[in-house]
Design brief:
This protein is an alpha+beta fold. Helix content is about 45%, strand content about 5%. The strands form 2 sheets. It has a 4-stranded mixed beta sheet with strand order 1-5-4-2. The longest helix has 19 residues. It is globular and about 100 Å long. The protein starts with a helix and ends in a 19-residue tail after the last helix.
Length: about 270
């Protein structure tokens, strides 16, 4: 479960999922452990230090990144379900009523998608989207859903977090760029409604998650390299799923027989005749 995944990770002391009580769970209600705390967006208002706010937001990003490469993925994250526990300062992630199990291919696909965006690799992006069950038509926002445009759109979604005052005009800027791609300032492009107007279908839970992370970090004026942190978290999962044993290869290089032999030094050149 997500609770066990986070508890067993390095984030266990910073983030947790409250216990679920199966006897209190129905198709419409999820009974969870009571957590006394405040909404994550309120921590700065109560006078939390810059260091504490940054720690909480970083833990949030790393926790959702971990679950995107784990077995359980929260499909409908919401800022209202993020509490900072009063007694411990840990971040509690509530309401896992809309969660699903990710297949091994889906877990690595997210990392490959992040890497494709970072490297602007359209082929890798297509492969990752295919493993996520997301055809090209799931990209609703771009006026011309060609691979290069799709990579650029995802890079926008995975942009670095920034202070709220700087982030307010982001969607308007993206609309202006897409108008130029479509054919000029008069082109009809409107995506100011948010991520639901950019990606849909199988990619919508992913875009909702990324939007949540950006929204919370920006509302608290915390700047983080979002794409870099998502790649760093997922790369270990990608290596673990690879049939190539990286650890064994490193051990072989460090302790095994040499892969090449240095040739003996050449004899000194004979003196040139006068």
């Amino acid at each position: 479960t997500a609770r066990e995944l986070l508890a067993a990770s390095e984030l266990g002391g910073a983030v947790f999922v409250p216990e679920v009580f199966p006897a209190l769970a129905t198709r419409r209600v999820l009974g969870m452990e009571y957590v006394e705390g405040e909404n994550i967006k309120e921590v700065r208002r109560r006078g939390a230090s810059e260091l504490e706010v940054t720690r909480i937001v970083t833990a949030l990003v790393d926790a959702f990144s971990l679950t995107m490469h784990g077995e359980i993925f929260n499909c409908d994250p919401h800022p209202g379900n993020l509490l900072v526990e009063t007694a411990t300062g840990r971040l509690a992630v509530l309401d896992w009523g809309q969660a699903r199990r990710l297949s091994p291919a889906e877990r690595t696909a997210y990392t490959r998608l992040f890497m494709a965006v970072a490297m602007e690799d359209t082929l890798l992006m297509r492969e990752a989207c295919a493993d996520l069950g997301a055809p090209q038509s799931d990209f609703a926002g771009p006026p011309d859903p060609m691979p290069n445009t799709m990579v650029g759109t995802l890079r926008f979604l995975l942009r670095d977090t920034k202070q709220a005052a700087q982030a307010r005009g982001d969607f308007e800027q993206l609309e202006a760029i897409l108008r130029q791609v479509k054919g000029g300032a008069d082109a009809d492009v409107q995506i100011s409604g948010g991520v639901e107007e950019i990606c849909r279908g199988a990619l919508l839970p992913f875009t909702k998650t990324v939007n949540l992370l950006f929204e919370v970090a920006s509302s608290l004026d915390v700047s983080l390299p979002l794409l870099q942190r998502l790649i760093s978290s997922g790369y270990a999962a990608l290596l673990a799923a690879s049939p190539f044993d990286v650890a064994a290869e490193l051990r072989e290089q460090l302790h095994g027989p040499p892969r090449f032999v240095l040739a003996p030094p050449l004899p000194p050149a004979a003196p040139r005749p006068p």
